[in-house]
Amino acid sequence: MKTARPVYFISDHTGITAEIIGKSLLSQFPDEAFAQVSLPFVDSLEKANFAAQQVCDAWKLSNLKPLVFSTLTDPTARAALDACGAVVMDIYGHFLNMMVDEIGYPPEPLRGRFHGMSDDNSYRTRIDAVNFALAADDGLGLEKYQRADLILVGVSRSGKTPTSLYMAMQYGLCVANYPLTPENFEQPGLPKSLQPHRAKLRGLTLAPERLAQIRSERRPNSPYASLETCKKELKQAELLMRSEGIPIVDSSHRSIEEISTMIKYSLSGERKN
Description:
- By secondary structure, the protein is of the alpha/beta class.
- The chain has helices at about 15-25, 45-60, 75-80, 90-105, 120-135, 160-170, 210-220, 225-245, 255-265, and strands spanning about 5-10, 35-40, 65-70, 85-90, 150-155, 175-180, 200-205, 250.
- It has 2 domains: about 5-105, 3-Layer(aba) Sandwich (Rossmann fold), CATH 3.40.50; about 120-270, Rossmann fold (3-Layer(aba) Sandwich), CATH 3.40.50.
- The strands form 2 sheets. It has a 4-stranded parallel β-sheet, sandwiched between helices. It has a 4-stranded parallel β-sheet with strand order 6-5-7-8, sandwiched between helices.
């Protein structure tokens, strides 16, 4: 069994940026084994020295040079981490140096500026959007659809709720979701509650085998989770969505991040860039 190489995501705030970039790069080496550790809120020189020591200890135990993805903003903390001798990928330092060369003056480091609450309006917008998604989940809050930026439709367990919440948190969009059930397929056209909001509708679908697996985790050995039921419902839902001109995203082999990005890109105005 291959020894796992130590990998550290080190940040003086949440570490989200370091993890996103680091994990994206690690995914390019599927045959390698990585032991991943996140160290957020390394917001002092003392903590940076302690983090560097952890990296050194992991190096000795594994006998493999660790990979470190860092978004530390304080130069002294970055220097302390660099001194550990691991492969330190200083994400901020690398790009900030390039920007300084072009802009002509040094930055003003502020921990957590990107993921923090420095933009109060943006923070409140995202919190409001999350509350909206919860209130308009799974066909609830039909009276709120006028306010929705987007309404996701699809059969039960097709990924509507997690996608709604992710888009609320990431983009501040008010996303409702509506389940398409066998009762909806007995009548032609869209359910009446969706008809006034056709332009806001986006559909989710997935492979029947994947849907059956997901449903079986909730209701094992039930007609609801049977492959036959899943095939039938997905076929009817896709026919309905296509006949109504609703853009569809297949979520079978896509992450929530990918699904959300594709849907956001499909919204009005996104293709202007």
